[in-house]
Amino acid sequence: MPALIAASAVRTCLGTGEETFAGLLRGECGAGPLRFGDPGALNVAAGYHVPDGDPARPFRAGRLLAGCVADAARRAALDTSRQRVIVVVGTGLGELSAIEDRALNGTAVALSDLHFGAAVRAVLPGAAGVTTVSNACAAGGHALALAQDLVELGEADAVVAAATDTMTRSMLTMIGKVGDPPADRVRPFDRNRRGVLLGDGAAAAVVVPEGAPGPVLARLAGTGLSCDARHQTAPDVAGIGRAMRDAFERTGHEPSDVDLVVAHGTGTALNDPAECEALRASFADGRSGTGADGVPGEGPLVTAVKGAVGHTSGSAALVNLDVAVRCLTEGVVPPVVGLRSVLDEGEGLRFVTGSPVRRRPRLVQSDAFGFGGVNAVTLLEAP
Fold first, then answer.
1. How far apart are CA 175 and CA 302, in angstroms?
2. Is 295 helix (H, G, I), strand (E, B) or coil?
3. Segment holding 129, helix H or strand E
4. Distance of alpha carbon 264 from alpha carbon 71, whole angstroms
5. Whole-angstrom Cα distance, residue 76 to residue 68?
6. Would you give the distance in Å from CA 143 to the centre of its chain?
7. Cβ atoms within 10 Å of 319's Cβ, excluding its own
8. What is the CATH number of the domain that holds 79?
9. Strand duo 158-165 + 85-91: pairing
C-alpha cells in the first residue's frame, strides 16, 4: 500500500533542497579544493563541501542531520505530543571522522556518540524512537523502506526517514588509491570520467500513511531492495536488476510506467556501466524513439545529481528522492551535470544533458547502490 511523502529537507554543497535543485537546473558543479585532510598525501584534490565552517570539526554528520530533521519536521507540522513519530537514520560512515580524530590523539569515543539519537532528540524531543542503520550508499533508501513499513503497519503516525554522511580520511584514502590522476569533479556516465569524489550531505523525508492530513509532496509507491554480496566493492548487474524488479513487483507497476530515472551515477569505472546495463535490461521493452521532449533514445528520461553535489554516501538515496519530488511537482528535469559524452554502455538511454527538459513525470524511479551489493530502488508517484 503506498504511503505519502509529507515533507523533504536536504543539505548539500549547493545548499538547501530548493537551492540544490536550482543549482542542478543551472548546471552548477559544487566541487572545490579539498578542505579536509592532506590533499597531497590522500591523492585527492577536490571535494563537495557543505559551507558550514570547519570541515574538520568532529560530529558534523550529526549536526547536518539535525538541521534536516528539524526542517522536515517543521514543514510536515509534526507534533510529538499527539503523534507517535519514529526516526530512522541511514548512514554509510556514521561519525567515523570523530573516531579517526580521537584515534590520532589517543582518546576514546563513547559508543552513544557514534549513533544519532542525541542529535535527533535535540531537535525533535518526544520522538518515540531513533534507529540508525548502516547500509553503505543505499542507506537512505533502506531507511525509506523501513519508514514505509512502519506507517503501513500502524507502528507510527509518521516516520522521519533521514540520512547523513560527511568526509572521512579513510574513505578519501580509498578514493585516492584508485584515482590516478585524481578527479577534479564527478562526471556521471561520461566516457572520460575519472572517478568519484565525496560530498558532505544530509537529508530527511517525512513519511505518513495515505489519507493522513497535512501537506503531500508525492506518493511513495514502494522501494525494492536487494543484497547480492557478490563482491565487497564491485557492482553486480544481476543484483541491481533484482532491486529494480522488486520495486515493480511490490508496487504493481511496470517498467514502461516510469517516466524518469534519477540514477545513482557515481562516475566510476565499474558502477556507471553496470547501472546502464541494468537500466537497458529493465526498459528493453519500453518506449523508444525521440519523445515530445526532444530527447532521443529508449525508455524514460535519465538524470543524476552527483556531478553537482558529489557522492553524499548514505544520504545519496534521499538526496535523489528530494530531486525526484521536485521533478514531479515542478514539471522540469535537470541535466546530468558533468556529462558531455555518454559512455558506450549508455548509448540509447535518454540522458538529459546540457539544459533542463520541461516534463512533468507521473512515476519516477530513484536508484541507490552501495558496497557489498546493498541496493535500493524507490518508485515515486505524483500526488
1. 26
2. coil
3. strand 129-134
4. 25
5. 12
6. 11
7. 29
8. 3.40.47.10
9. parallel
Classify burial at 33, counting beta carbons within 10 Å of its beta carbon; exposed 0-12, middle 13-18, buried 19 or more. exposed
What backbone phi and psi angles, to 5 degrees, belong to 297? Answer: 120, -165
On whether the CB atoms of residues 378 and 245 are closer than 8 A, the answer is no
According to DSSP, residue 183 is labeled P
- Structural domains in the chain (count): 1
Structural domain for 273, as ranges: 3-381
**pTM tops 0.85:** yes
Instruction: Give me 33's grid cell.
Output: 579544493
Angle at 342 between CA 339 and CA 347, to 5 degrees: 145
| Bridge partners for 332 per DSSP | 358
Assess whether the previous peptide bond of 300 is cis (omega < 30° from 0): no
- The 10s digit of each residue's pLDDT in 108-148 is 778 777 789 999 999 999 999 999 999 999 999 999 999 99
Dist CA 48 CA 307 (whole Å): 10
